Amino acid sequence: MAEWIERSGEKLPDTAFRKSEGAFSSWLVLVPDDRALYTDWQKPGASVQVSETDQVRVNEPISAFVVFSDCMADTLGNCDVQMRFRVLAPDGSVYAESPSMEVWQGKKAPNAQLLELSVGYLKVAIEPHEQLGNYQVEAQVKDLISGKVLLLQKPFRAASGAET
Questions:
Q1: Burial of 41 by CB count in 10 Å (0-12 exposed, 13-18 middle, 19+ buried)?
Q2: How are beta strands 55-57 and 149-159 bridged, if at all?
Q3: Which helix (H) or strand (E) holds 62?
Q4: Distance from the CA of 94 to the CA of which of 20, 138, 139, 151 falls in 20 to 30 A?
Q5: How far apart are CA 154 and CA 157, in angstroms?
Q6: Which residues make beta-bridge pairs with 115?
Q7: 3-class SS at 67?
Q8: 89-96 — which CB contacts under 8 Å span 24+ positions?
Q9: What is the gyration radius of the CA atoms in the chain, in angstroms?
Q10: What is the three-class DSSP state of 36?
């Protein structure tokens, strides 16, 4: 079974936002700046420092990405991984749902145990007339070749500018 491992070599257990099934692994990350993450991800180097957030002010965006590893390749060596997002409002109602989106489709499988960033992502901004409080982002990540599905979730808090 695959496990998440710190740079120090320490094993990390599965959590609501970071899971593995066999070698297939996914991690749901919430960031305040989608462009900064894409730019940093493209820089050569052994690692990327991901600036995650769990808070957002009204009218400021928050973006949800999936970091993954070890998707199963088809006979041509390509992966087919998709995701769907759902965001729950503080009262438990569905705030937003996405259609199926690309994580990694029709692309060569990344080298084993290397992390890759999803192609698609979800970007939301809570507007002034909407609920403040704790939102929940849910991601269903599916490797269509292996049939493995990982259900991930991570909260964030929406507050007025005066509350953060």
A1: middle
A2: parallel
A3: strand 61-69
A4: 20
A5: 10
A6: none
A7: strand
A8: 89/130, 89/131, 89/135, 90/131, 90/132, 90/133, 90/134, 90/135, 90/158, 91/131, 95/124, 95/130, 95/135, 96/122, 96/124
A9: 16
A10: helix
pLDDT (tens, 9 = 90+) of the chain, 164 residues, equals 455 666 666 777 899 999 999 889 999 999 999 999 999 888 887 677 888 999 999 999 999 999 999 999 999 999 999 999 999 999 999 999 999 999 999 999 998 778 899 999 999 999 999 999 999 999 999 999 999 999 999 999 999 975 54
Which residue type is seen at 137? V
Backbone angles phi, psi at 22, to 5 degrees: 65, -135
3-state secondary structure of 42: helix
CA atoms of 40 and 21, how far apart (whole Å): 28
